[in-house]
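Entries read chain and fold; for instance:
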Amino acid sequence: MFKEEQIHFPQSEIKTMLVPVSTGCPYNKCTFCAMYTGDAYSEIPLQDMEYELLNGDPYTDRVFLTGADPLAVGFERMSKILKLIHKYFPYCGCVAAYASVRTVHKYSTEELAELHKAGLGLLYIGFETGSEEVLKFVQKGHTVAQAVETGKKLNEAKLPFNSIIMYGLAGEGKCVENARQTAAMLNQFDSSKIVTMNLTIFETTELSEMTKNGTFIPAGSEEKLEELKTLLQNLEARKTTEFDTTHATNIIKMTGSLPGEKERLLEHIEDLKK
């Protein structure tokens, strides 16, 4: 059943063992997202997951849970999934997954800490922006306050996460202010990595229709580079945090540690603008 669905995972997990948890997206309302268009949300039965694990390499050391938002299955079911992974992959050191602010925000700090203790080692969270206005416009389904509370809750639970940010999402003329607000949000919690993505407008999305009727005017490459520059300038990492723009959508590819390599990264942007 799940083998008929298109599987999405971060490029950094390309060599990771994939374990299906759900198909489709339980929310599926973001105006810019085309990843799960037409895919009904459903949870993979535990026996099907166990079959996948049973036929895997027992020496697997890393697992990625597939699905738009695996934690949407709830604490009890996620605990069972992590126990199954530990049963069949006793050497697994990290279970990673996509996650949404909407879902993680519903978990208690204690529950997140328990899941981390059971093997959940890294979440990839689409914060996208720190602008309340933009969050509402793209129907992201969470507020800036909820995003900050979620980040702080994960820090308290000591559960690492990567913050995914999408530049260009505010549209023409609004990118720089969006960058300032996004940095202000990110500065309130500690991310393991800040991953940027360049807004890509897909034909099947609501944002595509908004672009056609003039409701949304995309920003140009020069403004997007200025947004990245402003984001970097305003980030104040309290702990060593990787800044990564190597995702395929990006108009500039670079990585570096913050705060130490901030100036080098800024110089790289300036070189591209010349």
In short: The longest helix spans residues 75-88. The chain has ten helices and ten strands. The two ends are 51 Å apart (CA to CA).
